[in-house]
Design brief:
This protein has about 70 residues and is mainly α. The protein has helices at about 1-5, 10-40.
Length: about 70
């Protein structure tokens, strides 16, 4: 009698269906987040103010041809 109530699905089959459903919902949430993230334009960064001018590093060693 108990076997007829479960309609032939084992516990492991039901667990697999539930797990696949959870993964499907998580994938939908991920795609919604990615869609919203790609929709927002990126902000341009303002140039950083540097109080001292950047000086070029002098070359200390000269390469000589052998």
């Amino acid at each position: 009698m108990e076997h007829d109530l479960r309609m032939g699905l084992s516990v492991w089959a039901i667990a697999a269906i539930v797990c696949n459903s959870v993964v499907g919902v998580l994938m939908i949430i991920l795609f919604v987040i990615l869609y919203k993230a790609c929709k927002v334009p990126s902000q341009e960064k303002a140039p950083v103010f540097i109080s001292e001018p950047v000086q070029k590093i002098e070359q200390k060693y000269l390469l000589t041809a052998a």
